[in-house]
Every structure is written in structure tokens, then in C-alpha cells.
Amino acid sequence: MLSKALQKALNDQIQKEFYSSYLYLSMAAYAESMNLPGFAHWLKLQQQEEHGHAMKFYKYVNERGGRVELQAIEQPQAEFPSPTAMFEEVLKHEQFITASINKLYEKALKENDYATQVMLQWFIEEQVEEEASASEILETLKMAGEKGQALLMLDRQLARRGMN
Ligand code: OFO
């Protein structure tokens, strides 16, 4: 059985994952408005992944006999100064999520909740990937600049992302 404190922390994390999903869909909408279909495609897949993260926590809380309580999701940012600025936000957000997962893990350690520690290991690994892919795109954007050919090529590259 999950402790009340851990159940609350997991419900908070479900909210953060749904917010991530909502934020990336908002970023996809921005990309569509900028005529960058490859960016939009990448962000929509990311949005689906985030939904999957939320549902992984949802399933886990239920499996442990806990109670899922969904929380309000705030309005995500809709406009960005540029695609680079948007990817700076992606990276910042992923770093925020990593910190949040780490805090959850610390809580599970303190409570000697081994099952939650094992479940969170998947997320700890996932966050390494999430930060790496955001920072790779951000670095490319910074190097290539945001004009013409280079941006178009990056957009084409992002269009090829498959579901991982
Ligand atoms: Fe982007 O990893 Fe979940 O939130």
C-alpha cells in the first residue's frame, strides 16, 4: 500500500506529466503557425509520450492500491519569440521534470518503498534521454541559426522522427 505522502507526490507528478503533454501540444501549435511541420510532428509525438508518462504513473498508483486524483492543468505558453527560444523552454522544462522525479525517488528511499524506487528507475533513465534530445535540437538550432535553408533542413530532419 502506498503511503498517503507518496500517493500525493505521485498524483502531483501525474499532473506535471499531463502539463508536459499540454505544453508540447501548445508548442506544436506554435510550430504549425510558423509553417514548421517537422517541428510540429516532433512535438506532437513528444506530447503523446508525455501522455504515456502520465498514464504509467496512473497505472502504478492503482496497482499499489492508491487513489488517482487528477488536478487542474494550467494554461501553457502559446507564443514564443523563436524556435530556439521554444527549445530553450523544452530543455528547461525537462530539467524541471528531472528534478521532480529525483525528489520523488528521495521520498521513496526515505520511506523504504522499494517498489516505487524500481518503478522510478525507468523515469530516471527516460529523463536522461529527454534532456539529451532536447539539448541536441537546441544546439543544432543555435549553430544553424534560424534562417532559411538551415531551419528548413532541421524541420525535415525532425519530420522523420518515429515513435520510440
Ligand atoms: Fe518529458 O518526460 Fe515526462 O514530463
Describe the structure.
30% of the residues are buried. The longest helix has 31 residues, at 114-144. The chain has one domain (4-73, 81-159): Ferritin, core subunit, four-helix bundle (Ferritin, Up-down Bundle), CATH 1.20.1260.10. Helix 1 (4-33) runs antiparallel to helix 2, helix 2 packs parallel to helix 5 (148-159) and helix 3 (83-110) packs antiparallel against helix 4. The protein has helices spanning 4-33, 37-63, 83-110, 114-144, 148-159. It is an all-alpha fold. The radius of gyration is 17 Å and the shape is elongated. Helices cover 78% and strands 0% of the residues. The structure holds hydroxy diiron-OXO moiety (OFO).
Bound molecules: hydroxy diiron-OXO moiety
Report mean pLDDT, rounded to a whole number. 96
- Give the structural class: mainly alpha
| CATH architecture assignment name | Up-down Bundle
CATH fold-level name: Ferritin
Helix content: over 70%
Alpha-carbon distance between the two ends: 32 Å
Regions with little confidence, pLDDT below 50 for 5+ residues:
none
CATH H-level superfamily:
Ferritin, core subunit, four-helix bundle
- Biggest sheet, in brief? none
Could you give the count of β-strands?
0
Which descriptor suits the 3D outline?
A: elongated
| CA radius of gyration | 17 Å
Under the CATH scheme, which class?
Mainly Alpha
Query: Into how many domains do the coordinates divide?
Result: 1
Strand content: under 5%
Query: Count of helices?
Result: 5
